[in-house]
UniProtKB/TrEMBL annotation:
This is EAL domain-containing protein. The chain holds residues 278 to 557 of 557 of the full protein. It comes from the Bacteria. It comes from Luteimonas lutimaris. Keywords: Membrane, Signal, Transmembrane, Transmembrane helix. Residues 24-274 form the EAL domain.
Amino acid sequence: LALAAVAIAWRRRRRPAVVAASSDPELLADLEAAIESGRLDFAFQPKVDLRSGRWLGAELLVRWNHPEHGPIAPEDFVPMAEQAGVIGAMSVHLVRCGLAQRRRWPATEPPLHVSVNVSANDLADPRLVDAIIEACPGADAGLMLEVTETDVMREPGRVADALPRLRAHGIRISVDDFGAGHSSLVNVRHLAPDELKIDRSFVTNLLASHSDQAIVTAIIGLAHELGATVAAEGIEDPATRQWLADAGCDAGQGFGIARPMTADEFATLLNVGQAGSGAG
Ligand code: C2E
Ligand code: MG
Ligand code: MG
Ligand code: MG
C-alpha cells in the first residue's frame, strides 16, 4: 500500500518523488529484476526527413509496466537505474532490442537508423562501449546514440574519448535536448556530434515566440557549421513542421508526425509508405 502511494505520488510530483523512489529498495529490486530478465518494454517514435518526407528511422523509448503499480515514466525510473548502477545493463539490452528490430525494416538509401538514449556514464565506461560495439552488425551500424546535453557536460572529456571508437564502427552520436543545458561551444566543437537535437521547449511555442525562432535558427546554423545534421523534437502541428523545414532543419519528430508506437506498428508503417508532405 505504501509502495503504491509512492508510485502514484511520483507520477504527480516529479522532483521530490524521484528521490523518494530511488531510495525505495523494493522498487529498485523490481527494476533490477525487470532489466535482468529483459521484461522492460519499449516504443518507437518515427523520425522523418523534413525535406523529402521520408522516414529516417525511429527513436527507441523505454517503457516499464510495473506488475502492481502500472506504467512508470522513464523520467522517473531512468534516474533510479542510474543510481542503482544498472543503467549500463539496461542500455546494452535496449541497443540489442533496437538493432534486432531494425533487421526487420526495409533496406533504404540512406539506411534507416535506430536511435537509442544512453547516459554519459555509459559512454564513459569502456566495457560498456565495447558491449555496444559488439551488438552492432558491421560497418554500417545503423545505430545513433542520444545523450542529453546536460549529461554530456557532466563528463565532456570521457564522452569525447569514447566517440572515435564508436565512430570507427559507424555508430553516430546525437546531443539530445540541445539548448536546454549549459554546453560551452568549445565542448560542442570538441565533441563533433553527428546530430544536434533541438530541445522540445523551443519547439512547442515556436510559431508564437520570436526568441524561440531566433534560438532554433541559431542552433540549425551551428549544427550545419559543425558538419552535423539537426533534428527537432516535439513537433505537434503541420505549421511548426513547415516552419522548421523552411528554416533548414533536417529531421523532425513529434506527436504531430507520429506518436511513439509498438515495434510491429512501426514495421507496418515503414512498409505502408512515407510520411507525407514530400515523397509519397
Ligand atoms: P527524450 O529522449 O527527449 O524523448 C522524447 C520524449 O518526448 C519522449 O517521452 C516522447 O514520448 C516525448 N514526445 C515526443 N514527441 C512529443 C510531442 O510532440 N509532444 C510532447 N509533449 N512530447 C513528445 P518519454 O518516452 O516519456 O521519454 C522521456 C525521456 O526519458 C526521454 O527524453 C529520455 O531522456 C528518457 N528516456 C526514454 N527512453 C530512454 C532509454 O531507453 N534510455 C535512457 N537512458 N533514457 C530514456
Ligand atoms: Mg532522446
Ligand atoms: Mg530529447
Ligand atoms: Mg527530452
